[in-house]
Specification:
Blueprint lengths: L1 H32 L13 H37 L6
Organism: Nesterenkonia halotolerans
Keywords: Membrane, Transmembrane, Transmembrane helix
InterPro entries: DUF4235
Length: about 90
């Protein structure tokens, strides 16, 4: 049951963290480049800018994934430690 709780917590943390990280990345991109963050591929965007956006997005996605899994695991351990083997959550 802990694996199910762990996965559910990771999903929730990942969705919340991903939403916040996307907003922050869009804000930083707008301040840095002066343009809105690209949402679809277009021919007007330079290769350099497209690669910068892709790499930045990938780094943030990977970081959110790792941090959400660790956060969920840590939270499940705290819950299990608090309630012991009685936890059927």
């Amino acid at each position: 049951m802990d694996k199910l709780l762990d996965k559910g917590m990771a999903l929730g943390i990942s969705l919340g963290g991903g939403f916040i990280a996307t907003r922050i990345f869009d804000f930083v991109w707008k301040k840095t480049t002066g343009d809105d963050a690209p949402r679809v591929a277009n021919d007007e965007m330079t290769l350099k800018r497209a690669l910068a956006f892709s790499i930045g997005s990938a780094v943030i996605s990977a970081a959110v994934q790792v941090l959400s899994q660790r956060g969920a695991s840590s939270t499940v351990k705290k819950i299990r430690g608090k309630f012991g083997d009685r936890s059927e959550v």
